[in-house]
Structure formats: structure tokens, C-alpha cells
């Protein structure tokens, strides 16, 4: 098996950025009384990050714009 290119892996700083974004979105969801699908949220954050949205502020804005993809309003 061929090794995966190094660009597919996130370094510690990159993981920290993604984790802070996930944490902030999770905190936002509690504020708005919504339920989050954590796997979809994590996938969204990683996909955006790997597609070039690596600035934390921009990443957070992009994820918030897609909030409907991973949240469900509580009844």
C-alpha cells in the first residue's frame, strides 16, 4: 500500500483550530436550543478546512452559514 500524502493529515495547530470551531458551534447550539449531529458537524469543519478555509474566523463563519446541515430544532 502506498503511503498517503502528508497534506491529508492535520497538524496539531490545524486540529486545534478545527476543535475550537466545533466547540464554538456546539456552544452556539446550546444557546439556540438546537440539537447537533456531531459527526456531520465534524465532517463539515474538516471538509471546509481541507478545501482551503483554514482561517479560524472564516471557518467559523462558513460553518455557521451551514448550520442547517447539522442542527435540528428542539421541540
Protein architecture, described:
This protein is mainly α. The protein has one domain (20-73). 57% of the residues lie in helices and 8% in strands. The protein contains 3 helices and 2 strands; from the N terminus they run αβααβ. The chain has helices spanning 12-31, 38-50, 56-65, and strands at 34-36, 71-73. It has a two-stranded antiparallel ribbon with strand order 1-2. Helix 1 (12-31) crosses helix 3 (56-65). The longest helix has 20 residues, at 12-31. It is elongated. It starts with 11 loop residues before the first helix and ends with a strand.
Entry summary:
Helix content is 57%, strand content 8%. It is mainly alpha-helical and 75 residues long. α1 (12-31) packs across α3 and α2 crosses α3.
Query: Could you list the spans in which at least 5 consecutive residues all have pLDDT below 50?
Result: none
Instruction: State the order of secondary-structure elements, H for helix, E for strand.
Output: HEHHE
Number of strands: 2
Q: What is the number of independent domains?
A: 1
Tell me about the largest β-sheet: 2 strands, antiparallel
Helix content: 55-70%
Beta-strand content: 5-15%
Give the overall form. Answer: elongated
Mean of all residue-level pLDDT scores = 85
How large, in whole angstroms, is the Cα Rg?
A: 14 Å
Going by helix content, strand content and strand pairing, the class is mainly alpha
Tally the helices.
Answer: 3
Strand order of the largest sheet: 1-2
Distance between the termini: 49 Å
Layout of helices and strands:
Layout: H1 12-31, E1 34-36, H2 38-50, H3 56-65, E2 71-73
Antiparallel strand pairs: 1-2
Amino acid at each position: 500500500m502506498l503511503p498517503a500524502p502528508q497534506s491529508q493529515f492535520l497538524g496539531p495547530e490545524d486540529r486545534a483550530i478545527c476543535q475550537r470551531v466545533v466547540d464554538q458551534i456546539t456552544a452556539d447550539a446550546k444557546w439556540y436550543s438546537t440539537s447537533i449531529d456531531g459527526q456531520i458537524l465534524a465532517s463539515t469543519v474538516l471538509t471546509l478546512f481541507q478545501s482551503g478555509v483554514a482561517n479560524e474566523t472564516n471557518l467559523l463563519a462558513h460553518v455557521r452559514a451551514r448550520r442547517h446541515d447539522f442542527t435540528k430544532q428542539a421541540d
